[in-house]
Write the C-alpha coordinates for this entry.
Amino acid sequence: MEKQITFESEGKKLFGVLHLSNKKKSPGIVLFHGFSGQKAESHFIFTHLARFLCKEGISVLRFDFMGSGDSEGEFVDKTLLTEMKDGENAVNYLKNLKEIDRNRIGVLGLSLGSVTAVYTASKLNIKSLCLWSGLAYPSVISRQLTRKLKKQLEEKGEGYLTGTGLSISKDFVESLKHIKPLEFAKQFKGNVLIIHCKDDTVLSLTHPFAYFENFHYNAGFSELVIFEKGRHTFVIEKTEKDVLETTLKFFKETL
Protein backbone atom coordinates (compact mmCIF):
# COMPACT_ATOMS: atom_id res chain seq x y z
CA MET A 1 0.00 0.00 0.00
CA GLU A 2 1.21 3.48 -0.86
CA LYS A 3 -0.07 6.64 0.77
CA GLN A 4 0.97 10.27 0.93
CA ILE A 5 1.98 11.44 4.39
CA THR A 6 3.19 14.58 6.16
CA PHE A 7 5.15 15.06 9.35
CA GLU A 8 6.60 18.03 11.21
CA SER A 9 10.28 18.92 11.34
CA GLU A 10 11.47 22.07 13.07
CA GLY A 11 8.20 23.85 12.40
CA LYS A 12 8.00 22.84 8.73
CA LYS A 13 5.60 20.34 7.17
CA LEU A 14 7.49 17.71 5.20
CA PHE A 15 5.77 15.66 2.51
CA GLY A 16 6.47 12.03 1.71
CA VAL A 17 5.18 8.72 0.44
CA LEU A 18 4.87 5.73 2.75
CA HIS A 19 5.09 2.26 1.21
CA LEU A 20 3.60 -0.24 3.67
CA SER A 21 4.12 -3.95 3.18
CA ASN A 22 1.39 -6.51 3.88
CA LYS A 23 3.07 -7.67 7.09
CA LYS A 24 1.51 -6.70 10.42
CA LYS A 25 4.94 -5.71 11.75
CA SER A 26 7.56 -5.10 9.09
CA PRO A 27 11.07 -3.70 9.08
CA GLY A 28 11.19 -0.11 7.83
CA ILE A 29 13.64 1.97 5.81
CA VAL A 30 13.93 5.74 5.34
CA LEU A 31 15.40 7.12 2.09
CA PHE A 32 17.38 10.38 2.03
CA HIS A 33 17.64 12.06 -1.38
CA GLY A 34 20.54 14.05 -2.80
CA PHE A 35 21.32 17.78 -2.95
CA SER A 36 18.91 18.90 -5.68
CA GLY A 37 16.81 15.75 -5.58
CA GLN A 38 13.43 14.89 -4.11
CA LYS A 39 11.53 11.83 -2.87
CA ALA A 40 11.37 10.11 -6.29
CA GLU A 41 15.00 10.94 -7.14
CA SER A 42 16.70 10.80 -10.53
CA HIS A 43 14.82 8.66 -13.11
CA PHE A 44 12.47 7.69 -10.24
CA ILE A 45 15.01 5.31 -8.74
CA PHE A 46 13.76 5.93 -5.17
CA THR A 47 10.23 5.09 -6.29
CA HIS A 48 11.49 1.93 -7.97
CA LEU A 49 13.47 0.94 -4.87
CA ALA A 50 10.60 1.59 -2.46
CA ARG A 51 8.16 -0.52 -4.48
CA PHE A 52 10.76 -3.25 -4.96
CA LEU A 53 11.48 -3.48 -1.22
CA CYS A 54 7.81 -3.25 -0.27
CA LYS A 55 6.94 -6.29 -2.40
CA GLU A 56 9.54 -8.20 -0.40
CA GLY A 57 8.00 -7.29 2.96
CA ILE A 58 10.02 -4.17 3.82
CA SER A 59 8.16 -0.89 4.36
CA VAL A 60 9.73 2.32 3.09
CA LEU A 61 9.39 6.05 3.74
CA ARG A 62 10.68 8.43 1.09
CA PHE A 63 10.23 12.15 1.68
CA ASP A 64 11.37 15.63 0.65
CA PHE A 65 13.80 17.52 2.85
CA MET A 66 12.78 21.02 3.93
CA GLY A 67 12.87 23.31 0.90
CA SER A 68 12.93 20.43 -1.58
CA GLY A 69 10.17 18.81 -3.61
CA ASP A 70 6.75 19.40 -2.05
CA SER A 71 7.94 20.14 1.48
CA GLU A 72 7.58 23.52 3.13
CA GLY A 73 10.48 25.94 3.31
CA GLU A 74 12.88 27.47 0.81
CA PHE A 75 15.75 25.59 -0.79
CA VAL A 76 18.13 28.46 -0.07
CA ASP A 77 17.55 28.00 3.67
CA LYS A 78 18.68 24.38 3.77
CA THR A 79 21.99 23.33 5.32
CA LEU A 80 23.45 19.99 6.28
CA LEU A 81 22.21 20.68 9.80
CA THR A 82 18.59 21.16 8.67
CA GLU A 83 18.76 17.96 6.64
CA MET A 84 20.20 16.04 9.57
CA LYS A 85 17.36 17.23 11.80
CA ASP A 86 14.80 16.34 9.10
CA GLY A 87 16.38 12.90 8.93
CA GLU A 88 16.01 12.37 12.68
CA ASN A 89 12.36 13.39 12.56
CA ALA A 90 11.70 11.12 9.57
CA VAL A 91 13.19 8.10 11.33
CA ASN A 92 11.24 8.82 14.50
CA TYR A 93 8.03 9.21 12.48
CA LEU A 94 8.57 5.78 10.90
CA LYS A 95 9.52 4.15 14.21
CA ASN A 96 6.29 5.28 15.83
CA LEU A 97 3.99 3.71 13.24
CA LYS A 98 2.14 0.66 14.56
CA GLU A 99 2.88 -1.27 11.37
CA ILE A 100 6.65 -0.94 11.84
CA ASP A 101 9.01 -3.03 13.96
CA ARG A 102 10.99 -0.22 15.60
CA ASN A 103 13.89 -2.59 16.30
CA ARG A 104 14.38 -3.31 12.58
CA ILE A 105 15.02 0.12 11.05
CA GLY A 106 17.33 0.91 8.14
CA VAL A 107 18.32 4.09 6.32
CA LEU A 108 19.66 4.75 2.84
CA GLY A 109 21.28 7.93 1.55
CA LEU A 110 22.13 8.99 -1.99
CA SER A 111 25.01 11.40 -2.61
CA LEU A 112 24.64 14.34 -0.16
CA GLY A 113 21.81 12.41 1.51
CA SER A 114 24.46 9.95 2.69
CA VAL A 115 25.62 12.50 5.25
CA THR A 116 22.17 12.46 6.88
CA ALA A 117 22.04 8.67 6.58
CA VAL A 118 25.36 8.17 8.40
CA TYR A 119 24.44 10.74 11.03
CA THR A 120 21.02 9.26 11.84
CA ALA A 121 22.41 5.73 11.74
CA SER A 122 25.06 6.51 14.34
CA LYS A 123 22.86 8.68 16.58
CA LEU A 124 19.63 6.66 16.56
CA ASN A 125 21.12 3.16 16.74
CA ILE A 126 19.94 2.20 13.27
CA LYS A 127 20.38 -1.49 12.51
CA SER A 128 21.35 -1.28 8.82
CA LEU A 129 22.73 1.52 6.66
CA CYS A 130 23.16 1.73 2.88
CA LEU A 131 25.04 4.44 1.00
CA TRP A 132 24.55 5.05 -2.71
CA SER A 133 27.26 7.22 -4.32
CA GLY A 134 27.90 8.63 -0.87
CA LEU A 135 29.61 11.95 -0.14
CA ALA A 136 32.33 11.41 2.47
CA TYR A 137 34.02 14.82 2.27
CA PRO A 138 31.40 17.65 2.17
CA SER A 139 34.15 20.26 2.17
CA VAL A 140 35.08 19.33 -1.42
CA ILE A 141 31.89 21.08 -2.55
CA SER A 142 32.84 24.38 -0.92
CA ARG A 143 36.26 24.22 -2.62
CA GLN A 144 34.58 24.00 -6.04
CA LEU A 145 32.62 27.24 -5.74
CA THR A 146 33.32 29.88 -8.39
CA ARG A 147 34.84 33.24 -7.54
CA LYS A 148 31.59 34.93 -8.56
CA LEU A 149 29.51 32.74 -6.26
CA LYS A 150 31.89 33.27 -3.34
CA LYS A 151 31.53 37.01 -3.81
CA GLN A 152 27.72 36.77 -3.81
CA LEU A 153 27.82 34.69 -0.63
CA GLU A 154 30.02 37.24 1.12
CA GLU A 155 28.04 40.28 0.00
CA LYS A 156 24.45 38.95 0.13
CA GLY A 157 24.61 35.83 2.28
CA GLU A 158 23.40 33.72 -0.65
CA GLY A 159 24.36 32.99 -4.24
CA TYR A 160 22.99 31.50 -7.45
CA LEU A 161 24.32 28.17 -8.73
CA THR A 162 24.61 28.75 -12.47
CA GLY A 163 22.84 26.13 -14.53
CA THR A 164 20.83 24.68 -11.64
CA GLY A 165 18.07 27.20 -11.06
CA LEU A 166 18.92 27.06 -7.36
CA SER A 167 20.48 29.37 -4.79
CA ILE A 168 22.48 28.38 -1.72
CA SER A 169 23.28 30.28 1.45
CA LYS A 170 26.49 31.09 3.24
CA ASP A 171 25.20 28.94 6.11
CA PHE A 172 24.96 25.95 3.77
CA VAL A 173 28.57 26.40 2.68
CA GLU A 174 29.71 26.74 6.29
CA SER A 175 27.92 23.50 7.20
CA LEU A 176 29.86 21.73 4.43
CA LYS A 177 33.09 22.77 6.12
CA HIS A 178 32.18 21.69 9.62
CA ILE A 179 30.12 18.49 9.28
CA LYS A 180 32.37 15.42 9.07
CA PRO A 181 30.40 12.26 8.21
CA LEU A 182 33.46 10.04 8.53
CA GLU A 183 33.42 10.74 12.26
CA PHE A 184 29.82 9.50 12.37
CA ALA A 185 30.92 6.43 10.40
CA LYS A 186 33.50 5.57 13.07
CA GLN A 187 30.74 5.51 15.70
CA PHE A 188 28.27 3.34 13.78
CA LYS A 189 27.87 -0.17 15.22
CA GLY A 190 25.35 -1.69 12.82
CA ASN A 191 25.54 -3.17 9.32
CA VAL A 192 26.59 -1.16 6.29
CA LEU A 193 26.54 -1.53 2.50
CA ILE A 194 28.35 1.00 0.28
CA ILE A 195 27.59 1.11 -3.46
CA HIS A 196 29.44 3.26 -5.99
CA CYS A 197 30.31 3.28 -9.71
CA LYS A 198 33.78 3.60 -11.22
CA ASP A 199 32.53 6.07 -13.82
CA ASP A 200 30.94 8.43 -11.27
CA THR A 201 32.16 11.87 -12.40
CA VAL A 202 30.49 13.66 -9.47
CA LEU A 203 32.18 11.81 -6.60
CA SER A 204 35.36 9.82 -7.09
CA LEU A 205 36.16 6.46 -5.53
CA THR A 206 38.02 8.18 -2.69
CA HIS A 207 34.60 8.70 -1.06
CA PRO A 208 33.40 5.06 -0.82
CA PHE A 209 36.91 3.87 0.13
CA ALA A 210 37.07 6.44 2.93
CA TYR A 211 33.69 5.35 4.25
CA PHE A 212 34.65 1.68 4.07
CA GLU A 213 37.84 2.31 6.04
CA ASN A 214 36.12 4.32 8.76
CA PHE A 215 33.19 1.94 9.22
CA HIS A 216 35.72 -0.72 10.23
CA TYR A 217 36.15 0.92 13.62
CA ASN A 218 32.81 -0.32 15.00
CA ALA A 219 30.43 -1.61 12.31
CA GLY A 220 29.24 -5.17 12.72
CA PHE A 221 29.18 -6.00 9.01
CA SER A 222 30.46 -3.84 6.15
CA GLU A 223 30.52 -4.40 2.40
CA LEU A 224 31.72 -2.26 -0.48
CA VAL A 225 30.34 -2.92 -3.97
CA ILE A 226 31.82 -1.07 -6.96
CA PHE A 227 30.06 -1.29 -10.33
CA GLU A 228 31.94 -0.60 -13.57
CA LYS A 229 29.33 1.68 -15.15
CA GLY A 230 26.24 3.56 -13.99
CA ARG A 231 27.54 7.03 -13.17
CA HIS A 232 26.34 8.95 -10.14
CA THR A 233 22.71 7.80 -10.01
CA PHE A 234 22.89 4.39 -11.72
CA VAL A 235 21.42 5.47 -15.05
CA ILE A 236 22.38 2.29 -16.91
CA GLU A 237 19.54 -0.26 -16.98
CA LYS A 238 21.55 -3.30 -15.86
CA THR A 239 23.35 -1.34 -13.15
CA GLU A 240 20.07 -0.04 -11.73
CA LYS A 241 18.71 -3.59 -11.62
CA ASP A 242 21.87 -4.87 -9.93
CA VAL A 243 21.87 -2.01 -7.42
CA LEU A 244 18.25 -2.64 -6.44
CA GLU A 245 18.84 -6.37 -6.03
CA THR A 246 22.06 -5.87 -4.05
CA THR A 247 20.30 -3.38 -1.77
CA LEU A 248 17.33 -5.70 -1.22
CA LYS A 249 19.61 -8.64 -0.39
CA PHE A 250 21.49 -6.55 2.15
CA PHE A 251 18.40 -5.29 3.98
CA LYS A 252 16.70 -8.70 3.97
CA GLU A 253 19.78 -10.32 5.47
CA THR A 254 20.56 -7.65 8.07
CA LEU A 255 17.21 -6.27 9.29
Remarks:
- The chain is about 40% helix and 25% strand.
